[in-house]
Amino acid sequence: MTTRVDIQKEYFEKLKFPDACVVCSKENPDSSLNLNTFITINQPFNEPMFKNWQVNVPVCTEHKRNITFGRWISRLLFLSLVILTTVAMLLFWSFLQIQNLWINLGILVILLSIVIFIHSKLYAAPLLVESFSYRILFTFRDDKLAEKFAKLNGVNKVYNVFNQDREI
Fold first, then answer.
1. Exposure string (b/e) for 80-117, b if CB count within 10 Å is 16 or more?
2. pLDDT (tens digit, 9 = 90+) per residue, 130-164?
3. What count of other Cβ atoms lies within 10 Å of the Cβ of residue 167?
């Protein structure tokens, strides 16, 4: 199960992680990994566009290598899905002889949306960092680690995948 923790951006500078690996929950991991998010959904006007929200996350050395490798595999998978979608669209257009630009663009947007959805389901990270208008959303695969993270940062509610909150 995944658990989400919301942190207000004004508290981002004082953010603390539990001293445990985000993958295996082992205490006192021997390494760390920088995770960041560039694109903010519902960007406030007073914030710079494409601000880099970067956080240093504790992980074991072995998991750091695996996560880095997984990120590269994820990028290659995404790129291959986009190429496959483009080839499929070219074949689709050549067989149906559709010449209307708006129909073609609509079909392309739908197919690319499906590709992005499939990609997000194939690669489930142990920690996902997302930036929204006035908050940073951390999604943990480990519920107990998410609760520790929330307590360390003064957050008293966590959310499950159905957006139901619970007090901690």
1. ebeeebeeeeeeeeeeeeeeeeeeeeebbeebeeebee
2. 777 678 888 888 899 999 999 999 999 998 877 78
3. 6
